[in-house]
Amino acid sequence: MYSKAVLFVFALVYIALGVWCWSMPVEVAGRVGFKLVGDSGVSEFQVVYGGLELAIGFFLLFCFKNAQYQQAGLVFAVISSACLFGVRTISIALGGEFEAITYRLWAAELVIVILALSAWFTSNKSSTGVSAHGVDS
Predict the structure, then answer these.
(1) Residue 37 exposed, middle or buried by CB count within 10 Å (0-12, 13-18, 19+)
(2) What is the pTM assigned to this prediction?
(3) Residues 46, 22 contacting (CB under 8 angstroms)
(4) Per-position DSSP letters for the chain, written without gaps between them
(5) Could you read off the pLDDT of 87-114 as tens digits, one per residue?
(6) What is the spatial distance between Cα 103 and Cα 134, in angstroms, rounded to a whole number?
(7) Over the Cα atoms of the chain, what is R_g?
(8) Backbone phi, psi, residue 130, to 5°
(9) CA-CA distance, 6 to 10, in Å (whole number)?
């Protein structure tokens, strides 16, 4: 039940972020340090951030609603959140002058990684044969 709830919450968060990025691209981009140049820049931000986050959210919602895909959704959540956290960690470690939002996003991504890992490790083995301990033969 916990792992299913995590999938649902992650799905809602990504869908909300996707809608926000698509509907208010200039504002969102400005908050994280992007400057969008022209209509092409706005469109690109809407597609890459809005569209991709919507896709992730709807994929996780699909996994939430279909028991046979819940384990895959959790694995995806672990991998994607760990990559985001890892890349941001490296970026910060390389140095620079970052706005407070960068550190807040880093902290949020750490929490997301922990939640995704805990949901994955506490989930029941799915019909795919993939468990938190690896692939079963």
Answers:
(1) exposed
(2) 0.82
(3) yes
(4) -HHHHHHHHHHHHHHHHHHHHHHSHHHHHHHTT----HHHHHHHHIIIIIIHHHHHHHHHHHHHH-GGGHHHHHHHHHHHHHHHHHHHHHHHHT-----HHHHHHHHHHHHHHHHHHHHHHHSPP-TTSEETTEE--
(5) 999 999 998 899 899 999 999 999 999 9
(6) 33
(7) 17
(8) -100, 125
(9) 6
Q: Which residues contact 34 (CB under 8 A, 6 or more apart)?
A: 45
Residue whose entry in the numeric block shows the structure tokens 């709830």: 5
Q: Which of 70, 67, 71, 83 is nearest to 135 (CA)?
A: 71
Largest CA distance in the chain: 53
Would you state the structure tokens that stand for residue 68, as one six-digit string? 């046979």
Tokens 């996707």, residue located = 18
The amino acid present at 106, given as its one-letter code, is W
